[in-house]
Amino acid sequence: MHLLSIQRLLGLLLMLFSFSLLPPALVSWFYDDGQVQVFTTGMGAVLGLGCLLWLPACRYKDELRVRDGFLIVVLFWVVLGLAGALPFVLATTPELSITEAVFESFSGLTTTGATVITGLDVMPRSILFYRQQLQWLGGMGIIVLAVAIMPMLGVGGMQLYRAETPGPLKENKLTPRITETAKALWYIYLALTILCAVSYWLAGMSAFDAIAHSFSTIAIGGFSTHDQSIGFFQSSSIELIAVVFMLLAGMNFALHFVAWRSLSLSSYLKDSELKAYLSVLALVTMVTVSYLYYTDTFIFISDALHAGLFQAVSIGTTAGFTTADYFIWPGFLPVLLLFVSFIGGCTGSTGGGMKVIRFLLLLKQGHREMVRLVHPNAQIPVKVGGKPMPDRVINAVWGFFAAYVGSFVIIMLFLMATGLDQITAFSAVAACMNNLGPGLGSVGANYTAVNDAGKWALSFAMMLGRLEIFTLLILFSRDFWRR
User: Fold this and answer.
1) Mean per-residue pLDDT for 298-320?
2) Closest CA to 314 of 468, 438, 129
């Protein structure tokens, strides 16, 4: 373990993050909302901490190994979550405790969208912008950004990239050089953000709201600048734009890159995971719309389609935007929508959940086991897109699923032990581990009802989901620390 090299890199990454506090400071100055000192003080503190870590180890540039990369990613997300809470602690509006500030920071960076803040409509613009920016930075991963723009770090970028990027097929690179791969991802991410912001603005949002919501839409985060979320705007055009860009952000960004480079849509048409992703969302949308209409929740089919489509896509992609209080919808719909978030977005997307490819592989593996009961000696490969999947990938998916379920149960039982009811505890863990945000019961609208111990547990659940379980749990393994 190259501890001094890890310390050096951690210091560099913290110094890099400190400059992200400059844009909200400029927003505060522009709108004169009195929060400039909050962000300049926070920037100085984070920059100073980064320097303190970097200076003693600045001469150590050993090549990182795989486990060094995992340790850096986890340490950075923990330190970043704590550092990101500093402006919330320093700000007088809103008045948050340290626990609430850390919860809000982790929720932003992990693109979960669970919030403890109310009264967003009267909140300082700089605080609102900062929340949205946290999600945007966390969406593609600030470590991938660091690999893209800081090749002078002198470390093995592939180790950081593999530990940070979501999905079971982490070895795939879009370009021969990992820094070029990271840059390609960020170019696409930035381009989609700009397109989304311009579309929102043309549809009637103010420039501030358009930029802020483009951040959380492309990051599939769900934070909004209004308490009513997207429903505040009462605009079918804005909701349709949100649906389109949530769908795009929930797709594998590698597909966007290949389509852009080849100027062809064939990469989309051939991708099995994308077909499954769109099929699941289409099916859930049809069920939701039909049930809303036939239970007279909405009198007109157009209203049912309007609400059902938006909520199915928003929750299915784990964005978490709302136009209606879906958690009070009748029958099984709230639970159905919550369960869809377990599937989440495609691998290589900004979406949360277990990822569509894992869900697809689990179904195919289950089907293979049933066939084997009838034909015990048959050799039946599991194929995706006509290509057989290695057994190592199948085993990794089953291991991920087992670790996911085990972690889910432990955190849920802990929340129930703190006094939360079963529905609230179950949905809170699901919403946080899937990086969804809104849950059911007491956490349908916000998380102010959760006690401090529960907020810390849910912050841990957000990290588990964002880092895809193993990246975080591996640090609790003896084998990881064994020489």
Assistant:
1) 94
2) 438
